[in-house]
From TrEMBL:
Any one Pfam family match given in the protein's UniProt record, by short name: Aldo_ket_red
SUPFAM superfamilies named among the record's database cross-references: NAD(P)-linked oxidoreductase
Organism (species): Meridianimarinicoccus aquatilis
Protein name: Aldo/keto reductase
PANTHER family: GH17980P-RELATED
Amino acid sequence: MDLTQRRALNQRTGRNVSLTQMGFGTAPLGNLYRKVTEQDAQSTLRAAWDAGIRYFDTAPQYGLGRAEHRVGVALPGFDVTALTLSTKVGRLLLDCEPGEVTPEAFVDVPQKRIVFDYTYDGIMRSFEESLARLGTDQVDILMLHDIDAGTHGEAGEAEKLRELFAEGGYRALTELREDGRVSAIGAGVNTWQICERLLTEADFDGFLLAGRYTLLEQDPLETFLPMCIERDVGIILGGPYNSGILATGPVDGARYNYSPAPPEVLERVRRIEQVCADHDTALIAAALQFPLGHPAVKTVIPGAATPVEVRQNVATFEVTVPTALWSDLKSAGLLRSDAPVPEETENAS
């Protein structure tokens, strides 16, 4: 597959937001689980750009502002007319009180605490603070971050949706879109159900969905992805490896959804990996390319913390996956029979 090929987020709005088929997720550059030096971060961003990647995603959460700042340092070296940039709103980064520590998965980061705020003022403040860290006056895609029950619980999700719709958060997003300060609005979440709910209530251009449409999971085929096709809403697919297991295989300590993989998942991945091996194809290559078989999915965004990891992602993306591999996975009941595969999409386009 050609990672530099671009797909439009949607066609209906005429806002001309396009994404390379592989993007770059910057969570690792926020020191996710391990420290990345400034020099290594900049080298990694440059390696992604030099490889032809033109879509970069970031967020205030990633390193409590560190990832956005690092992207901002790199931007002057990029042709911004060819770049598509997204960030997220809904998290305010406030100074910690003396002695206060905010547990985070990010190491060696600024001493900040997170306050969730999806009101009009919260969205606007979050947006302006992101622009300051990025050193720019606009971004292409602005997404609500983690507004789902997985972050807030069911009662918390209901409260955050109330802030969004009753206290002006959605109005802030639409004003920014209408003013041209952003070209598209959406949400970056870990569950497809909240995306479907948002689509029933408002006009969104796309969603960054992490880990929910993969070689292991195709439940969104039931209702959500058909809704996206009907409404011309694009999907940015994060977490194509389901937190790691589709990259490592069913090894000891393999992780699924940020936790140790349960036995039934390990067994299913073992069976998928065997079908891949029968076709002399690495599991990770099939996992990275599979989501792009669906016409609603516009890009996949694996992360990287080093130039070597960028080059590995590129090489994995460019592997030729035999068409027979997909059909054998379907025959074995390891892939839904109605799941579109990359070759089918390319042949139809």
